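Quick one, tokens below:
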């Protein structure tokens, strides 16, 4: 009996056939890249909605991008979806010797450390060892997630504060430098404004990166935390709009604050 997955793979192959869909036939890995990223974000949104039906649908949309990209590669004589599945299956078995071998690990932290060690070993075997341990972290990741991965990788090499107090001291130090950069008179001078503004951006980046480390110290994902914070703001702002008796633009600062507190209490 043909599985639903096999049927889906056949459907995508048919869409890419000579007499298939004109749009699907003209797609390339590059043209599909934006859709792959968009669908991944929609999966994240579905996860946060706690709606299994939404998650099922969005995972299907993401699967479409994976199977379609694999079909593009197959049509080019490179690999197919079976090769993709075989490759990741082989990797998962080799990266879990504590499950498929005789090695024993007791904690998730030990598993993650082993994963990184095995990953580095695999790269050396392929003679693709990076110049830096950070080179393997994609620059196309969302910046907060990229910052977390960079921080985690640096820590794996021993680059870490001795205690949480030092982390908070670094936050305060970076905040001070940001305030100094923002108050720099050079920002108001046409000939130096661009350079001074870049300095502000760098200092703000330092603050954000340090806050990412605060998140890491508490086993928090800053990307997820920001998503939660944004959703909270969306709901409160929507409640403000609902409670408002006149256009929000017409509210004074004090009225705005009172309305914000009213919306906060209502939720």
């Amino acid at each position: 009996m043909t599985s639903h997955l096999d049927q889906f793979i056949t459907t995508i192959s048919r869409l890419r056939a000579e007499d298939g869909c004109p749009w699907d036939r003209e797609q390339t890995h590059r043209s599909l890249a934006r859709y792959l990223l968009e669908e991944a974000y929609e999966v994240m949104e579905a996860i946060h909605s706690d709606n299994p039906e939404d998650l099922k649908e969005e995972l299907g949309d993401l699967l479409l991008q994976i199977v379609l990209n694999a079909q593009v590669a197959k049509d080019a004589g490179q690999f197919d979806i079976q090769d993709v599945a075989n490759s990741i299956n082989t990797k998962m078995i080799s990266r879990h010797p504590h499950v498929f071998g005789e090695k024993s690990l007791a904690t998730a932290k030990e598993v993650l450390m082993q994963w990184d060690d095995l990953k580095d070993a695999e790269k050396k075997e392929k003679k693709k060892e990076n110049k830096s341990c950070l080179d393997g972290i994609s620059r196309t990741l969302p910046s907060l997630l990229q910052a977390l991965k960079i921080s985690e990788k640096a820590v794996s090499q021993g680059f870490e504060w001795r205690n949480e107090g030092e982390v908070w001291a670094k936050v305060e130090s970076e905040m001070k430098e940001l305030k100094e950069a923002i108050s720099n008179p050079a920002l108001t001078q046409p000939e130096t404004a661009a350079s001074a503004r870049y300095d502000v951006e760098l200092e703000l980046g330092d603050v954000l990166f340090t806050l990412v480390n605060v998140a890491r110290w508490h086993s928090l994902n800053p990307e997820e935390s920001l998503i939660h914070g944004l959703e909270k703001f969306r709901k409160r702002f929507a409640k403000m709009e609902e409670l408002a008796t006149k256009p929000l633009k017409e509210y004074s600062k004090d009225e705005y604050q009172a309305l914000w507190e009213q919306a906060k209490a209502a939720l």
